Automatic annotation (TrEMBL):
Pfam families in UniProt: Myb_DNA-bind_3
Myb/SANT-like domain: residues covered: 1-84
PANTHER family: EXPRESSED PROTEIN, L10-INTERACTING MYB DOMAIN-CONTAINING PROTEIN-LIKE
InterPro entries on file: Myb/SANT-like_dom
Protein name as it appears in the record: Myb/SANT-like domain-containing protein
Record region (Disordered): 152-171
């Protein structure tokens, strides 16, 4: 399901349906409709937008890691590389780096198309909205500025030195607001994933292990369950499939 999600959005980006850093409504609707029909699950625009924010956060982490001077990059494998000593030091300081070190980054090219151009190097400044601070005097300012602040900014924008300082302060305020917004949304996603794990994991385990009667090895099925338990989209898709389609998925998992 994750691959389908990113493939569709990558196609939409190539078609020009992402004029800034947000997709057109028709693109979001296409993803929701396709996923709903393909996997027989309920998926609407809000689900797509929420998951897109998760993907953006993942991409931000990848970009941050790649900026570390001690780490290498294998473009053929789409893998951030390092030796054992560097790996141990990095994950000790930044545990969230672990899933991205010395492992192929799945769907890297698709994420680069869908998210990559949104991210300024070393910054998360324009992830969810394009804000043209150079035109601050001609449009209403973002966030909750009072009238005096607006008037002051419009007056001072003509002065290059003061304007630059003001724009910097405004940008920092915008960044803080976006970071707070991201934090709130990630909290909602984390809570939803926690609920999914609590409610569905025992059922998922039973369903995966029931495929033993179809000729699959017990240890192999345990490995498949571990993978699905960590991938919500894939787990939901697996549970939605009929037995013969689950067999096909497991056979592909064996080859992968």
């Amino acid at each position: 399901m994750e691959s389908l999600f990113l493939e569709i959005l990558a196609e939409e980006a190539q078609k020009g349906n992402k004029p800034s850093n947000t997709f057109r409504a028709v693109s979001i609707k296409r993803v929701a409709t396709t996923i709903s029909e393909r996997f027989q699950v309920q998926c609407d625009a809000k689900h797509v937008e929420n998951h897109l924010r998760t993907v953006k956060n993942t991409w931000k982490t990848i970009c941050t890691i790649r900026e570390e001077s001690e780490l290498g990059w294998d473009d053929n494998m789409k893998m951030i590389t390092c030796d054992r000593v560097t790996y141990d030091a990095a994950v000790t300081i930044h545990p969230k780096y672990a899933p991205f070190l010395n492992k192929k980054i799945e769907f890297y090219d698709e994420m680069a198309l869908v998210i990559g151009q949104d991210m300024a190097t070393g910054s998360f400044a324009k992830t969810f909205a394009d804000i043209d601070l150079d035109n601050a005097a001609e449009c209403s300012l973002p966030l909750n500025f009072d009238n005096e602040d607006v008037a002051e900014e419009r007056t001072k924008v003509s002065s290059s030195g003061t304007s630059k300082r003001k724009r910097k302060n405004l940008q920092e305020s915008v960044d803080d607001d976006h970071i707070q917004f991201v934090g709130e949304k990630l909290g909602e996603i984390a809570e939803a994933l926690k609920k999914f794990t609590e409610d569905k994991t025992p059922h998922l385990y039973e369903e995966v292990m029931s495929m033993e009667k179809e000729g699959f090895d017990d240890d192999f099925l345990c490995g498949a369950f571990d993978f699905l338990a960590k991938n919500e989209f894939e787990a939901k898709a697996f549970l939605a499939k009929k037995t013969k389609h689950r067999k096909i998925w497991l056979q592909k998992f064996t080859q992968g």
